[in-house]
């Protein structure tokens, strides 16, 4: 091991003090790592078995162009996704350019003027606010006569069942449930909690479409939303299920009818899933899915380790290092702008790409304060790769996620900590 420690110290500037502290903390999270490994093994077999069942073959990796009729690889990819997520049908496309776009297509395809959307879990993810029209944007669903209602969570992030019941009316067509905390200080919902919520909603109105925003949640547990009653689950391929290899894409899985409605919106009425060339990226999407359980495992381990390190220093973290996880996001309340900036700059320093640039807070459009982002990723904006971002305002929360490999995640976070120590911001 001495060679390893020498490498950490000479090539990455980790001091003896930081090294000793980190190794000691790593020793204390073995049990959590073992639990993560068990889930990963199960999910790896789930993915493998779906690939075998669908007789995946190298012929499926061929590129199609133009309209993309009879794209065998695309069809097999979608059948594999459907099986992995226990869904009747799947739409998995490079033409779905992001998670937000996939969610937009799922919503717009299944809603009509006069329908109402209900979020029973508080305000949805930032970009979705514009899509729905909670925040005024051109082309929002609101402009098409689709209304929105929201029920906030109770203290301790409990569902407000009474208010949810009252909020469901004849107009309520679709309920959107965000699994991950996104950019809020709340717990992410476990599959068991999502099950309870969906069962409650269906007991009030059977035909409501329950859609889960599954971003950051895939392969963190053994089950996925469709298995507990969701009608649709939607996510991004530059997060968990793309395994770091997908260069673009989104997915929508669920009931045949609802996925088809989404497909008519993505392409055109009458065309649906039958068109859409894959231009040669199907192999990356399929191989990415194959790798996804492992990559999620690396992200989870990186998150647990980070949580443990900062708990030890006395910062508030969410989740705590020994808490069950429902997504790959780790929150740390850094208590000052200097801490946030130093940590994010350290994460950037440890990246495989753009390690020599220094991120600074900037006034990003759509935010009410400066934001700092650390991301040295192979795929632009990919947050299954180790990344951290933070709005520079109290309580100075950093949102950290990803890590293509645990050993990279580990050194990345250690450099983050080292940067804070070097600046005299924290004492170990
Ligand atoms: C990332 C994310 C989205 C949007 O995905 P993009 O690919 O960034 O558009 C939506 N919801 C949640 C919870 C997310 O984490």
Account of the 3D structure:
- This protein has 428 residues and is α/β, with parallel strands linked by helices.
- A 7-stranded mixed beta sheet has the order 1-7-6-5-4-2-3, with helices on both faces. The protein has a 5-stranded antiparallel beta sheet with strand order 8-9-12-11-10, with helices on one face.
- The longest helix is centred in the last third of the chain and has 32 residues.
- The radius of gyration is 22 Å and the shape is globular.
- The structure holds pyridoxal-5'-phosphate.
- The site of pyridoxal-5'-phosphate (PLP) has 12 residues, from helix 5.
Identify the notable features of this structure and list them briefly.
428 residues, alpha/beta, 7-stranded mixed β-sheet, 12 helices, 12 strands, 40% helix, binds pyridoxal-5'-phosphate
């Amino acid at each position: 091991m001495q060679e390893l420690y020498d490498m950490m110290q000479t090539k990455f500037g980790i001091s003896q003090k930081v090294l000793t502290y980190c190794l000691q903390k790593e020793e204390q999270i073995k049990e959590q790592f073992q639990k993560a490994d068990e889930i990963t093994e199960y999910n790896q077999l789930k993915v493998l078995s779906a690939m075998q069942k669908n007789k995946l073959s190298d012929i499926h990796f061929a590129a199609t162009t133009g309209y993309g009729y009879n794209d065998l690889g695309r069809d097999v990819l979608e059948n594999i996704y459907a099986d992995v997520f226990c869904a009747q049908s799947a739409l998995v496309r490079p033409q779905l350019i992001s998670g937000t776009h996939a969610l937009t297509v799922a919503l717009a395809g299944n809603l009509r003027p006069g329908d109402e959307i209900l979020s029973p879990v508080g305000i949805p993810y930032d970009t979705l606010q514009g899509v729905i029209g909670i925040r005024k944007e051109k082309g929002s669903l609101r402009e098409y006569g689709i209304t929105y209602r929201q029920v906030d969570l109770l203290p301790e992030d409990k569902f407000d069942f009474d208010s949810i019941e009252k909020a469901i009316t004849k107009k309520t067509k679709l309920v959107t449930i965000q699994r991950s905390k996104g950019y809020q200080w709340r717990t992410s919902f476990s599959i068991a909690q999502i099950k309870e919520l969906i069962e409650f909603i269906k007991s009030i109105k059977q035909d409501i479409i329950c859609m889960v925003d599954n971003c950051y949640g895939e392969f963190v547990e053994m089950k996925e939303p469709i298995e507990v009653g969701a009608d649709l689950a939607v996510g991004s391929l530059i997060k968990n299920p793309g395994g770091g290899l997908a260069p673009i894409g989104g997915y929508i899985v669920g009931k045949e009818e609802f996925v088809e409605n989404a497909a008519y919106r993505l392409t055109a009425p009458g065309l649906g899933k039958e068109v859409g060339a894959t231009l040669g990226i199907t192999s990356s999407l399929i191989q990415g899915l194959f790798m996804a359980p492992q990559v999620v495992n690396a992200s989870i381990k990186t998150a647990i380790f980070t949580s443990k390190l900062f708990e030890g220093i006395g910062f508030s973290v969410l989740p705590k290092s020994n808490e069950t996880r429902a997504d790959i996001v780790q929150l740390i309340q850094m208590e000052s702008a200097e801490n946030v900036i130093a940590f994010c700059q350290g994460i950037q320093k440890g990246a495989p790409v753009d390690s020599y640039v220094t991120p600074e807070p900037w006034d990003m459009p759509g935010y009410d304060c400066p934001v700092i982002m650390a991301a040295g990723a192979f795929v632009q904006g990919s947050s299954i790769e180790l990344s951290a971002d933070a709005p520079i305002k109290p309580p100075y929360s950093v949102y950290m996620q990803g890590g293509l490999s645990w050993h990279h995640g580990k050194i990345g976070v250690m450099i983050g900590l080292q940067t804070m120590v070097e600046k005299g911001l924290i004492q170990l």
